[in-house]
Specification:
The chain is of the alpha+beta class. It contains five helices and six strands, in the order H-H-H-E-E-H-E-E-H-E-E. Helix 4 packs antiparallel against helix 5. The longest helix has 28 residues.
Length: 202
């Protein structure tokens, strides 16, 4: 039903709000992760297969009489059939087994996560480098701080603060850094190092 002005009236039942932790998409949300190690192995394997296909096409042309020469694949197969076992083949065989096991591990190992989750949001992530920049920014706004550098590891954020006096409160620095770290998961602890101008620890 419309009003006299031709504009539909506002529904009496407003649309329910979507929870902050709910995803608006229907598909499954995956945690951001690095490129799998099998991608590079697959790239080189694909290049090797392309090269083998080129050789096979060349041998086919030789078989059809369009090219002169002997078939490379046939010659290689005959050479392998006539070859005898030599002592140097033991290390080569062991190396091939090791390479095969390594390729199997690369294919099944989990991908390294590149982002960490924001507290209270299931589908929002940030990078550790961005967390480090945020920590350095909030510390840099404190009085007496000349420069702040932060390195965020897996479980700890290390903040190095350069001061030009003794007016900087270590506990206040730890408080503002912890406030930033409380907004991400997994939980991380902070370590503050005070350095006076010139490189001496405060």
């Amino acid at each position: 039903m419309t009003s006299d002005t031709g504009v539909s009236p506002t529904p009496s039942h407003p649309k329910p709000a979507v929870a902050k932790t709910a995803d608006i998409g229907a598909g499954k949300v995956f945690v951001p992760a690095a490129t799998p190690g099998a991608a590079m192995v697959g790239l080189f394997a694909g290049i090797a297969l392309i090269g083998l296909a080129v050789v096979a096409v060349r041998d086919l042309l030789v078989y059809l009489g369009w090219l002169d020469g002997a078939g490379w694949l046939h010659s290689a197969a005959q050479w392998l059939a006539d070859i005898e076992w030599w002592e140097w083949m033991w290390p080569a065989a062991i190396a091939l087994v090791v390479v095969g096991l390594w390729m199997l591990w690369v294919a099944v190992k989990p991908r390294r996560r590149t982002h960490i989750s924001l507290v209270g949001y299931e589908v929002l992530w940030t990078r550790r480098g961005d967390v480090a920049r945020r920590c350095s920014a909030v510390v840099g706004d404190l009085p007496g701080v000349e420069n702040a550098t932060t390195v965020v590891g897996r479980r700890r954020a290390k903040v190095t603060v350069t001061t030009h006096g003794n007016t900087v409160d270590r506990a206040e620095i730890a408080r503002v850094v912890d406030a930033v770290l409380d907004g991400v998961e997994p939980h991380m602890t902070s370590k503050v190092r005070l350095v006076r101008r010139g490189g001496e620890d405060a």
